[in-house]
Amino acid sequence: MPEVGADRAIVAAVTGLGRQLDLSVVAEGVESAEQLELLRGLGCDLAQGFLFASAVPPDALAAILR
Predict the structure, then answer these.
(1) How does pLDDT run across 27-63, given as a tens digit for each residue?
(2) Which of 8, 21, 53, 62 is most enclosed, with most CB atoms within 10 A?
């Protein structure tokens, strides 16, 4: 998601719609700190993706959560 362009406009529109409907907005697939900052600036509530952790098998997740 670049700082300008159609992708950013779509994310801004979806985020704005979610906020207008009083919903929490979750961004998926966040891979960089730059993306996270742009999403925060657009009012995104939550994010997930490889920036935070790589994918793990379900049985490994239980061990991580302990």
Answers:
(1) 999 999 999 999 999 999 999 999 999 988 988 888 8
(2) 8
Torsion of CA 2, 26, 40, 23, to 10 degrees: 120
CA 31/CA 22 separation, integer angstroms:
26
**Cβ atoms 27, 39 nearer than 8 A:** yes
Q: How far apart are CA 14 and CA 20, in angstroms?
A: 10
Distances (CA, A) of 7 to 3, 4, 28, 29, 65: 9, 8, 14, 14, 34
Q: Is 56 left (phi over 0), alpha (psi -120 to 50) or beta?
A: beta
